[in-house]
Amino acid sequence: MSLPHERRLPLASLDFELEKHNFTKYYENNRPLFEEAKNAYISVIKSLIKQADVGEVTKVEGRVKNKEECIKKFQRKYQDKLEAADQPYEIKNYLSDLIGLRIVCLYEDQIADVSKLLKNHFKIIDVSDKIAAIESTEDLFGYKGLHMDLSFAKEMAALPKNQPFAEYPFEVQIRSLIQDAWSVLDHKIKYKKSIPNDLKRRINVLSALFELADREFKEIRNATTELIQQATVSPLGDVLEDNCEAPGSAATETGGKAFNVFHFLRVAGHFFKDFEFEDYKVDNFVQDILRLDNGFQKSALHKSLVENLKIVKEYRDHFIEGNPESTFSPYTVIRHCLYLYDQETFKRILAKGSTGRFVSWLGQNHSTP
To answer: Where is the signal peptide (predicted)?
Structure first.
């Protein structure tokens, strides 16, 4: 979805490599301004919270998204749809979270109050309730909070100090203290999406415990507040005690028949012994495969590499020779092998441009598959 504040320039195209280059240049030229904008948003929001009755907020912080992560997000969410519709694009027009802020409240029910405060003072681009999304499906786990895409409202944008970056949007994630703690731990858990079901159940149990803790802290706060109010009438001599017993968890095996990251690492690690496969990249790559073939098996990955690796390595050498500044990682090699293995199923495993170059090379050097 293109952001309303951006003016589409005539430079927009369907050439991803060109647009990636343009975005990189744009990002590097404006990085200091992004930092200034982030700091300005933090300052404004801290001031608004200080003046408002939203309860205690423990943290307001921000970051400027890494440019490589920006490009990956665009590829993941928008590139295929735009190219399928022959709609020219500029990557920067599709990144509402290039500047990101996080607000951490003590309690879950403060999130709505902080959200209302922001809606009253900023222009709303989009709102995404990650809590509701997670609670409505069994395929996700975690406790993510509320995400809002915002920009300065007209009055704030008109202030001289805000004008240099008044049109830059930013994302705000609003979480409770417990939600924030879970999010930090959640990011440390490996292979979140493709793990076997037994481990997924254990993580769901853990996330439920965090959610229960969030609700219990809120209830304890309410009960404490009530006791304090009662104390103004008749002092209390009783002491509240919170007796909590941490439930144990039995160890379970990490097996499973469905293709998952452990299968991927077992096979890919055999063919690419000197390459370090990073956790989150493996997870995303396995998801790409399963989106195209949800019945994919470990044996199919092995067979695709055995049958096609020699040809793809030959093409890789040819490509690098003609494009010495480009890379051709093991992930890219595997994508090409999967394409050769089953072109009908994996016709979208490669970008259109990559597919065209590969097919053209195959026609000149090998029998067309």
So the answer is: none
pLDDT at 134: 55
* Dihedral over alpha carbons 146, 147, 153, 159 (to 10 degrees): 100
Structure-token pair, residue 314:
């030959």
Q: CATH number of 16-188: 3.30.460.10, 3.20.20.140, 3.40.50.1580, 1.10.287.1080?
A: 3.30.460.10
For residues 44-78, one letter each, b for 16 or more C-beta atoms within 10 angstroms of the residue's C-beta and e for the rest, the string is: bbeebbeeeebeebeebebebbebeebbebbeeeb
With CA atoms as reference, report the closest residue to 287 among 187, 203, 195, 193.
193
Pairing state between β 170-176 and 99-105: parallel
Instruction: Report the pLDDT value the prediction gives residue 323, as an integer from 0 to 100.
Output: 93
What would the pLDDT profile of 82-134 be if each residue is shown by its tens digit?
A: 999 999 999 999 998 999 999 999 999 999 999 999 999 999 999 987 665 55
Q: Where are the domains of the chain?
A: 16-188, 261-365
